[in-house]
Design brief:
Elements (H helix, E strand, L loop, with lengths): L1 E6 L5 H10 L5 E5 L11 H17 L2 E6 L2 H6 L1 H7 L6 E3 L2 H8 L11 E2 L4 E6 L1 H6 L1 H7 L2 E2 L2 E6 L3 H6 L3 H18 L5 E4 L8 H8 L4 E3 L2 H14 L11 E4 L3 H12 L6 E2 L1
Parallel strand pairs: 1-2, 1-3, 2-11, 3-4, 5-7, 6-8, 6-9, 9-10, 11-12
Helix pairs in contact: 1-11, 9-10
Bound molecules: D-glutamic acid.
Length: 270
């Protein structure tokens, strides 16, 4: 057994990287559904079907706990999975809540009523499916009042990153930040609401300006996972085998992952 980390493609490696640095002895099975990326332009049923198939593959690889290191799947599929699909001895956790707890200055599991927080205006950068789900605004409303959220659907960025075209990804990030700034010229904070975007964090920060605090998920999710496993150590299981699985071309995906993680990574066909 091990902990599973799922994404539509390479983006979840930002979470994988933070988790493996924080808990180097924890066996991790990474699943990237690159054959079907990007998810962000798909409808909710499609995202649900792809996500449940991937999570089943992670159950088969011996994971009892799976992190959806994909905001699009967390936004479009997780609630439906939790309502009726996940077996009682398994767990699936999303990536939204740790981020919103950080933004709203809350400790893990603080379910007190929503209150005023320091941040008053937030720019949300995410995929089209995440933006149209309004899941971020819904989770935020449980915890904070009086926060103005302006969302920008960042079409094309995930595709460019999956293709390794960082020049295109850079140009798209700048144009999406410009579009956001036309709607909300001076946000207090910006959320990178897609796990691919931390790969472009510097470009987002440059385009937004140094006075905008950029929140990205990888470290927040790793911290929250460590906290969860301290309370639920039985969810780790006894296994030791870490592996990288992809539905895409293993050679191409391995090249992209090796470049990002700056160490040799070898994906196998899922
Ligand atoms: N990394 C995924 C996310 O966090 C990207 C989704 C996609 O494939 O469009 O939303």
């Amino acid at each position: 057994m091990a902990v599973g980390i799922f994404d539509s493609g390479l983006g979840g490696l930002t979470v994988y990287d933070a988790v493996s640095k924080r808990m180097p002895d924890l066996p991790l099975v990474y699943f990237g559904d690159s054959a079907h990326a990007p998810y962000g332009v798909r409808d909710a049923d499609d995202i649900y079907n792809l996500t449940t198939a991937a999570v089943e593959r992670l159950w088969d690889a011996g994971c009892d706990l799976v992190i959806l290191a994909c905001n699009t799947a967390s936004a479009a599929a997780l609630r439906r999975m939790q309502e009726s699909w996940i077996p009682t001895d398994k767990r699936v956790l999303g990536v939204f809540v740790p981020l919103i707890e950080a933004l709203t200055e809350r400790q893990w599991g603080d379910n007190s009523p929503p209150k005023e927080v320091a941040v008053k205006s937030v720019a949300l950068f995410a995929t089209p499916a995440t933006v149209s789900s309004r899941a971020f605004q819904r989770e935020l409303a449980f915890r904070a009042i009086g926060v103005d959220v302006e969302a920008q659907a960042c079409g094309g960025v995930v595709d460019a990153i999956e293709d390794g075209d960082m020049i295109l990804a850079d140009a798209l990030v700048r144009s999406h930040v410009d579009a956001l700034k036309r709607k909300l010229p001076k946000p207090d904070a910006a959320i990178l609401g897609c796990t691919h975007y931390p790969m472009m964090e510097k470009e987002f920060q440059d385009a937004l300006g140094a006075d905008v605090k950029v929140f990205s998920q990888a470290n927040l999710v790793a911290e929250s996972l460590e906290n969860y496993l301290e309370r639920r150590p039985e969810m780790i299981g006894a296994g030791t085998e870490s592996q990288f699985l992809t539905t895409g071309d293993p050679a191409k995906v391995s090249r992209g992952a090796t470049q990002f993680l700056k160490r040799q990574v070898t994906f196998q066909k899922a």
